[in-house]
Amino acid sequence: MAQVAILGAGMVGICTALALQERGHDCVVVDRRPPGSETSYGNAGIIQAEVVEPYALPANPLAMLRMALGWKNAVALHWPSLPRQLPALYSYWRSSSGTTLGKVIPLWHRLILEAVPRHDALIKAAGAGDLIRTRGYWELHATGAGLAAALLDAERRKRRYGIDFEAADSGMLARAEPTLRTALPGAIHWTAPWTCVAPGELVTAYADLFRTRGGRIVQADAAPLAQSGRGWRVAGEAVEHAVVALGPWSPTLLKGLGYRVPMVRKRGYHLHYGCDDGPSRPMLLADHSVVLSPMRAGLRIATAAELSVGSPPAAYPGQLARGEAAARSLFRFGKAVEDSAWSGTRPCLPGMLPLVCKAPRHAGLWFHFGHGHQGFTLGPVTAERLARAFDGDIGAVEGLDGGLS
User: Fold this and answer.
1) Out of 14, 141, 248, 294, which could bridge 147 as a Cys pair, Cβ 3.0 to 4.6 Å?
2) Could you tell me which residue, 301 or 311, shows the higher pLDDT?
3) In angstroms, what CA-CA distances link 35 with 15, 210, 294?
4) What is the set of domains in the chain, with CATH numbers?
């Protein structure tokens, strides 16, 4: 049995602790915030089974320019901070096509296939079934041409990966969502994903399961990580091994140990609104790059990506304003529940795969971060693989070392 400190109490960190604990190791989780309080709290609440290919950047520079100028509300740029991200963005763009992407997709697909079963086991063990819905989500398009193109891609994914979906025409969509105010051409119903009505609470439930099984969670700053003899010391804890699972904060901590990990940081926002007549399941508004998710706290409107490293979050960003306007054209709902928007940062690595590996130059140090948009989905999957590698099965994390040396 090894003593392990897991730095980070988000979905990835808590699942890491559970996976190592399951194998008999003595684990302590260290984070300055309670479990599930940061990025794991603020997502759209979808455990994705249909995203069998990673989010790649467009290969066409003109398409990139359209995105930069606000096409489909997908990207917002904070121009003064952009130079800090350019090297990582360039690497991301180079990885988004050709042979590199072709190598990434098979491994990404295998990870995604494991997500729902891994969560299912934890949900049952944690008694968190009341937080989960198993009816998938809608992908909506405002035009017939847009829907037709999306259906062709959905058919491609079904043929290649076996991912199921249902095509709904305008009438079928209206019957399924009777409070919808506007007639739309139809929608894609992705049936395989599960959804969560309180993502932060799901992480808390997993954390409670970890505690019930004998684990400890220490609320303290995880940043002062230092070698101590043959082990590590963090927040007053002396351990043999440490796992860095701090999401977007991981590269900053590791820089002090001599590691340079390039990362694209994508900020996302959400607000909750009072809503008694909203959608019956989450909806991706593809033409506006927002997700409408029925949550316990209200109707959550969640945005796509803002590239704004170092700048303070906006109280009500333009992406959210445009998303709210699109949502109000579809449903009647009330005022925002919160005074300002929540914001969090997705840790996206240029290679589009998470970093799950043993540190190449430090004994007893492990890396587990960089899941991009899919930390909530993939946390249990990569945690189980890290735990296997920790116990000697290095093949479990093959391809997830990010080329570190």
Assistant:
1) 141
2) 301
3) 11, 11, 22
4) 1-48+198-262+351-405 (3.50.50.60)
